[in-house]
Specification:
It contains 13 helices and five strands. The chain is α/β, with parallel strands linked by helices. Helix 2 packs across helix 5, helix 6 packs parallel to helix 8 and helix 12 packs across helix 13.
């Protein structure tokens, strides 16, 4: 009897130890998750995940497929030229197409931890906060995988203690340190023309020295200084496609009961609306 009690007591002790260890592991895991979130929040004051979500939400279902299926995009995706410059007039849908590309790439590589996709949405209304350092930090934060690079952790420790921010040179080093952990990184930069000239020049210089495992896609209005920076890149003009316009018009008609009634009673009206929208999109 005493021997049985001793065995039971021993089992209880081991269970208690295991329970304690599991609790400690859970606590340590939660601490690591919180630490990671804190460092990434510190790294980037810009939330391009939210901008991507908001921009993609404005897209009509099924639009943008022509761009993904285009030969130029496929060349950029799989070919030797790692840079694609897409031009278009204001209102041509450059930002929407950029969000379509980001969504396509993230969905395509969702299970591949060695792949990274980052989006930068430049906005002339946010020039004050969209400094070169913040733009690159926002990009880097999207590319960080499960393990934080040592350089990023050390930078956080040092600058937090000093209440300072990393310099442009330090941000480039952090970006490169993150990218070296990936097999391939996709960087999508929307509306480069909306950056100030100084910021734009700095970014163009940075783009010239991207790591060899990085593929860059940029959208912009046609500006000579920008185009010179992409003189050897693949190029694709963004214009409103007939298919996308038809989907857009159909969606707007469905959402307006009165207009929907007019269209049902007037067959050519839908086509006329589509042509007018296309004319506006062409400027």
């Amino acid at each position: 009897m005493n021997a049985d009690l001793a065995v039971i007591a021993g089992i209880d002790n081991r269970v208690s130890v295991l329970t304690s260890d599991i609790g400690k592991l859970r606590t340590d895991g939660e601490w690591l998750v919180q630490r990671r979130e804190n460092i990434l929040d510190w790294l980037s004051p810009l939330n391009f995940f939210q901008t991507q979500q908001d921009t993609f939400a404005r897209r009509e279902d099924g639009t943008g497929q022509w761009f993904i299926e285009s030969g130029v995009f496929q060349d950029w995706l799989f070919g030797t030229n790692r840079t694609l410059c897409c031009t278009g007039i204001p209102g041509a849908g450059k930002s929407i197409l950029a969000s379509v590309v980001v969504d396509f790439l993230r969905a395509r590589y969702t299970e591949q931890k060695s792949m990274g996709v980052a989006a930068i949405y430049c906005n002339f209304k946010e020039r004050e906060s969209q400094t070169p350092e913040n733009l690159l930090a926002g990009c880097s934060a999207q590319l960080v995988q499960h393990t934080l690079p040592d350089l990023l952790v050390e930078s956080h420790r040092m600058h937090s203690a000093r209440k300072t921010r990393p310099t442009w040179k330090e941000m480039i080093q952090i970006f490169e340190d993150i990218v070296t952990e990936l097999d391939i990184a996709y960087l999508i930069v929307d509306a480069l023309d909306e950056c100030s000239e100084d910021v734009r020049d700095l970014l163009l210089t940075f783009f010239e020295t991207l790591p060899s495992n990085t593929r860059l896609m940029v959208t912009t209005r046609y500006i000579d200084e920008i185009m010179y920076g992409f003189r050897t890149s693949l190029k694709l003009e963004i214009r409103a496609s007939v298919g996308d316009l038809e989907k857009y018009v159909a969606s707007r008609i469905r959402s307006n009961r009165r207009l929907s009634g007019y269209v049902r009673s007037n067959g050519p009206l839908k086509q006329d609306i589509c042509e007018r929208v296309a004319s506006k999109a062409e400027g």
